[in-house]
Every structure is written in C-alpha cells, then in structure tokens.
Amino acid sequence: MGMRLSFMVDTQMDKKADLAGPGIGTYEDLEKMLPNDYEPLLDVQQTQQALTDVKNFIEKGLGKELNLFRVECPLLVDKESGFNDMLDRDGSRTPVEFHIKNDHDKHPIDAQVVQAVTKWKRWALQEFKCAYGQGIFTDMRAVRKDYFLDHDHSAYVDQWDWERVIKTEDRNLDFLKDVVKKIWKVIVGSHRLALKKYPSLNTTKYPEIPKKLKFIHAEDILKMWPELPRKQRETELVKKYGAVFIIGIGWTLDDGYPHEMRAADYDDWVTPTTDKNKPYHGLNGDILVWNPVTKRRHELTSMGIRVTPETLKVNHYLKYPYHQMIMNNKIPLSIGGGIGQSRTYQYVLRKAALGECSVTVWPKVLREMCAKKKIHLLE
Asked: Between the chain's N and C termini, which has fewer beta carbons within 10 Å?
C-alpha cells in the first residue's frame, strides 16, 4: 500500500511538473538524447537554399488552401493593449519589456516584444478589411526568453501566424478538422518538393512524412496512458501514429490536470463538443509528429477556433482593450494559429536541431555538445 501511495504521489508531481513548459530539463539529459550517428543530408549552403524553397512553397500553399494573404505584423506592442501572447495561464512565461521615454517622458510607452501575434491577428482581420472566409498570414518574429534552449526550442521564434474570418456555424469540430487537414496537406507537399529538388534527402534511414493525421482528443489520450505525464503520453502517441492532431488542449481532464497549460483568452478550449457521439471539450489543438532524426515528439503548430464573449467570460479575461473588443463584438469570429517555421524546416529537411535552420543565440554548452555530434548550429 505504501509503495502504491508513493507511486500515485510521484505520478501527480510528475504531471504537475510536466505542465511547467516544453523542452528537456538539463543539458546532461539533452546530450543523451541527441543522436550519435547523425549525418546532415544537406550541407549548410544547400540548407539555406532549401529553406527558401520550402518557405515559398508553404506560404503559397497556405494562401491558396485557406484563402489568406500576407500582411506585416508587429515586433513590439503596447503593454496596455493586451495584444501580447502570454502563452500559458500561470504567468510563468513573461515577455521582454522596456520603457520608451518619448519626448522626455511626456508621452511615454511601455512596450513589449511579442511572444506571438495571436491576439493582434484577430484585431487585424478588420484592420485589413477581411470578409467572411478570407484571412491573413504573417512572417512573424518573436522573443520567448523563458524557454530552456535545446534542440527544438530557442529564444528567437519564427512562425507563420495566420487568422481567418468565420461565422457562428463554423464553430464546430468538422470545420476545425477540415482546416487542419489543409494545413497538413501543405506541409506534406513541402516535404515532397524538398525530396524532388534535393535528391540527398531521399534516404531509407528516415521514413516519409505520413500522408494523413490521426485526430484524437486529449481526454482519450489520458485514458490510453493515465499514469503518464502529458509529454510522455504525446511521445507514445506519435510513436504509434507518426503524426497527430490533439484536440482540446487546456481543458482540465479527469486526473485534475489539463493536457497542457494554455492561455485562456484566444483559443477556445472550453466549449463542449461531440465527436462520434462522445462528449468532449475544446475547439483547438496541436499538430505533433514523430521526429525520426531525434526520435522524439515534435510540435509543429498550435491553433484553434477563437473565444467568444461567452467562453471568454468563463475564462475571466476582461481587463484589456483586446478583451473588451471581444466582449462587445468589435472584432470578427475567427480561427487561427501559429506554424513554427524553423520547427517545420527541421522536420521536413531531416535536421537534428532547430539551430541548423534558425540563426539565434545558443549557450556554449549546447554549441559544443552539438559540434561533437556533427550538428552545426547557426550563429
């Protein structure tokens, strides 16, 4: 009985710790995880050329499949606007802030570097006069200073952040799944393009990207592996299916924890839904894949149908101008998400680390570790 109680306590602590954030806990753990037999399939020059080809393909594909056009987006936002993405709901990932004195502090601004432009995009739909079924995408750059820097997390973030106008009748799982399938079609297409243009990527060492995604609810994943923390549940899931879309991330599950902490003021993970006559919650989710190079779970995109005045009330976010616009129906209903650019390049081009595709700062310990394993981090 004592051993059983200890196991339950340890499991609960593991699950709680697992909500704190992505990545790996220490560089000792990371060194064990990174492959020892890695040989880049593209050299540094070919990689840069391939990045351009894949980027152009995906941007054109997103525009066509989702009826989006490209717009400029902010690197900085006013702190008081409420536009910045807080990434979670426990306050652990704070943005970079600084004070702009402006005219000797007569007209100052407290500015924040964006962590993503999730909320700004929804406001921007009316700024750019988007009609129903039309939307925007951005070549977004951000800073997330609270990440542990490892093989697929960096302080510098590049994303295709996108948003599209919908109607009330579109707020359902079938519509969500249809949009996800279109995004996956574009990602698979980019991989095929890369295989065609760069023959060295054609290798039996790694399997091709799965043609289809497995859709599964967070509630059902917990039932499959009730004793495991969520990252381990995700690992088992993508090992089994290759590529998945997890629905309902943020809702508190039967074990008392959400699948992962999620901000409560953009994606709707509250709304009750029904899928194949079974009750669930949430109109949001993530695409996760099995990375055959690192042999780990790999997240590509987070997205969802956005909150309404009703679901925002449930989540108690009413303080900032952005939230008041939602409550007063001043901005459109929408669906949107962020697709990690370097994350996608890493997956499509069979790279061991994000830093082979993205130029940013890395700690010395990580640079030296990767160099020993033939992983060339860009600086």
From this structure: N
CATH number for the domain spanning 339: value is 3.30.930.10
The answer to whether residue 302 is catalytic is yes
Give me the number of domains the chain comprises. 1
343 occurs within a structural domain? yes
Residue 46 annotated as catalytic: no
- Using alpha carbons, select from 119, 162, 112 the residue that is nearest to residue 142: 112
Global pTM reads 0.92
- Specify if 309 maps to a domain: yes
Start-to-end Cα distance in the chain:
54
Please indicate whether residue 299 is annotated as part of the active site: yes
Contact 279, 251 (CB under 8 A): no
Q: What is the pLDDT of residues 37-82, one digit of tens each?
A: 999 999 999 999 999 999 999 999 999 999 999 999 999 999 988 8
Expressed as residue numbers, the domain containing 42 is 33-372
135-143/68-71 β-pairing = parallel
Q: Which of 112, 302, 334, 342 is catalytic?
A: 302
- Residues 122-170 pLDDT 10s: 999 999 999 999 999 999 999 999 989 999 999 999 999 999 999 999 9
Choosing from 18, 158, 299, 356, the catalytic residue is 299
85 is catalytic: yes
Catalytic, 59? Answer no
Q: Does the residue 12 lie in any domain?
A: no
Q: Which of 144, 171, 230, 296 is catalytic?
A: 144
